[in-house]
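User: Here's a chain of 331 residues. Predict its fold as C-alpha cells.
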Amino acid sequence: MTATIFLHIGMDKTGTTAIQSFFNKQRDALKQQGLLYPVTGCNGIAHYGLSNALGFFHGKKNENNVSDLLNLAEQLADEIETSELNTILFSSEFFMIPKPVQPVRAFFSSYDIKIVIYLRRHDSWWESVYNQAVKTVASPPWGRGFEHYFEFQKKRDSKRGNYRNVIDTWANVFGKENIIIRPYEQQQNQPNIIADILEAIDFSSVTQQLDAVSKRSNESLSYLALNLIDIYQRANISSDIRAHLIQQAIPLGDKNISASIIPPGLRRQLVDQNMPDYEYIAREYLGREDGRLFYDPLPDPKRPWSPPAHPSWANVVEHTVKAMADLGKKI
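Assistant: Prediction complete.
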C-alpha cells in the first residue's frame, strides 16, 4: 500500500510550535496508533532539516546537494519500511517561504501527499508576527511600534501574507484536492489545535487516548513587556545581557489583549483588503458556499482607541536595575 504523507507547512503563528511539540513528544505513542512522525529530517521538534534540504530556507545559498537529498530519501524509506506504517506527518513552517515547490513533489514522488495549511485572520496574524519579531530581532531595521514594522515589511515584500498566492502555488503542483485548509480560530479549532489537526489528517480517534492538551508555546506579551524588550533590542549591549533582560521582561505587565497595538481602522483595513481572498479560499478549498473563512466578529473601525502608554523612563530604569541585580545573584 502506498504511504500517505501529510505535510504540515504552517503558516507561522498558527499554533505550529504547539503542534510540533505534541507530535515530537508523542512520537512513540503515535506510532502505536498507526501514525509516524519521522525522525528523518527532524531538527529539534520540527522537520527543518527536510525543508532546508528541499530549498526552503532564508538566504540564497543551499548547503545541501543532490547526494544529501538522496541520502535523506533513503533514510525516510528505511524509517517508513521499518515502522510498517502507512500514514506519515511532517511539519515545518519554513515551507511557507516562497521557493519552488516542484522539488517537494519530486522528493515525495513515491507517496500520496497532502498539504496541511492553517490560516490566521490577518489582523491577528500581523499582531502576533510583530510580537515575535520584537522578541527575536536585535537592532531591528524598522522604527518603534507596529505601524513602522508593518510598513517596513510591506515594502520589503509586498506579497507577504498573500494566502491565496501561497495556496494556489501548492495546489498547482499537488492538486487542489490534496490541499487541506484549516482556519486558525478558537471556535473552529475545538477543543484545541491538537485535536483539530488530528481530525484534519483523519486521526481524531487518538485524541482521547493521548495527552492532546494544547499548551501555548509562544505567549503574547503585555504592552509593558513589548516596549521594554523593544528598548533592549535597540541597545548597544552584549547578546548575553540582552537575552537576560528580555527573559526578565517577558512575564511583566498585564497581558490583557484588549489593549490592542493596532489601531481599529488599520485592523479593519487588514481584514477588508484580504476579504476577497478569504471568500475565494473558503469556496474553493473548504466548499463553503457562503464564502466565510473566519467566524470571529469583524473589527469595529470606530471602536474607541488610544495607543497604550509607553513605560516611563523611570519604569525602564527600575525594571532594568532589577533584572541586572537578579543576574548578579546568579553570577
